[in-house]
Design goal:
mainly alpha; two-stranded antiparallel sheet; 2 strands; 66% helix; 9% strand; globular
Amino acid sequence: MRLLGFLSSIVVVLSFILPWFRIPVNGGVEEITFLAILEETLGSSNGLEGAFWWLNPESVGTIFLFIVFFTGISMILAGILFGLLGGRTGPGIGVVGVFIITLVAWHVYGEGFFEVLGEGYIIALLSFVVGFIWGGGKAL
């Protein structure tokens, strides 16, 4: 069913407007969407400090952490693109991208990782998994 790979990618795109992470900041909680993550990562004028403010306000990420995180974002976007063409490869790439972002966030937040997850993140992960398992298709 090539249609399922396509639909799962559409659902992931729709999850971009939902909160992916709920970051504790100054006694409150700030919701971060995937669109905000893209904006801070790609368009930040504050360098690495600006790109990582939502990951951990108390520390600055290293260049290695930034590269790994940027790789995860790129894989999610490539997974959506290939998923829109149908098949399993796109959602498979997306699952790996979400897994990479998971490792970065888990590294930063440790045991508190599950408290920072938002609906958008869970929807994107589940959509990619469904598209990968039942996506069908041969090439893409």
